[in-house]
Design brief:
Number of domains: 2
Strand order of the largest sheet: 3-2-1-6-7-8-9
Shape: globular
Helix content: 25-40%
Strand content: 15-25%
Number of helices: 15
CATH superfamily of the largest domain: Glycogen Phosphorylase B
CATH architecture of the largest domain: 3-Layer(aba) Sandwich
Number of strands: 15
CATH class of the largest domain: Alpha Beta
Mean pLDDT: 86
Structural class: alpha/beta
Distance between the termini: 63 Å
Radius of gyration: 22 Å
Largest sheet: 7 strands, parallel
Length: 419
Amino acid sequence: MRQISAVEPDRPAPRRVAFYSHDTQGLGHVRRTSLLARAVVEADPDTDVLLLSGAREATSLPLPERTEVVTLPRVGKHPEHGYGPRTWSGTLEDVVHVRAGVLDGALAAFRPDVLVVDKVPLGVGGELLPALRRLRAQGGTACVLGLRDVLDTPEVAVREWREQRSTSVIEQFFDEVWVYGDAHVYDPLTEYALPGHVAARTVFTGYLGRGRTTAAPAPRTDPAEPYVLCLVGGGQDGAALAEAFAAATLPAGHRGVLVTGPYLPEATRDQLHDLAARRDDLEVHAFVRDVVPLVEGAAAVVTMGGYNSVCELLASGRPGLVVPRTHPRAEQLVRACRLADLGLLDVLVGTITPERVGAWLARTAAGGGVLRRAEADVDLDGLSRVPALVDRLVAVARETTTVPTPSRVQQEEEHRATA
């Protein structure tokens, strides 16, 4: 009888791709990461994925097959004390020490062909440094830094880039930089005057807009009854917009659907549910696994200006009013104003009131809900391009043997970068 070996010798090993998002606040980073993971697995089902995140809600998001999630001890930002453990006592350094050990151990054991790091090259407090150093030393892993289109205003982004010594970190540890945007809308290489050797490693993927729909069920809605939708991201700073929408006069013949996000303060969420119970034209949901069907079915959308919300709005073709966060970062404001200049959406800045929200909804409903279009289309096809980028890097990684261990000078430079 012919014996069958456990591993066919001519069959290549399954690809392994890891994604890291630090997620000190909100769900934006891990939502983007989960979308990238799904795109990669759908393009090649013979792929194992490890998603590392500080957001425990990552396990509630629509995830592809063969994906495991490692949730890290959580870090939060306190108004008075800055970053620190969200649950534990102690200091930021205490929780970062634990997170760094988890990251190093998980990535050393998983040995990904490709590691994609979201936004912060070395992670919170430099927690990725031990893992990056190990991966570089053992070889076989291509590392990518993934950046959203807008980091902040140029002044703030440039200062933080220098303080974090991001150029040096990229040179030492990262093979490519992916910008999840369209350079014709916003070009961080130019806006932030990034050096040529960073630009040489940079690929603009296009916005991660089209292809976000999953099979996850949306909240029950009556397709025969038009509705207007309000999104406040994770909800941690969306109370003012949520309250204004819930109190606004809605267009005749329309219901209101409000998604508060899991981080909206509980007292505010309770008040909104009480208000919805007194109205026959408003429903409130705390969390939706896949918001895309809701956006696509809405007559109009009022939303904060986070990256994911704006991508969903642009891809849907629905008319949108963006109410951007302005503190502690101006990222949402910069993005919204740039897209408004292109005629793709409206922006509300300043005091958020039910009257202002209601007036925009009334004007939009009267106009038939047709989105204005710019002459030049925005590139929204990033999710369809990322798999090919991963394919190429997997091939490169599997040709890599061993990268020399960093010299003492390099190690001292890395230490200064994270000090």
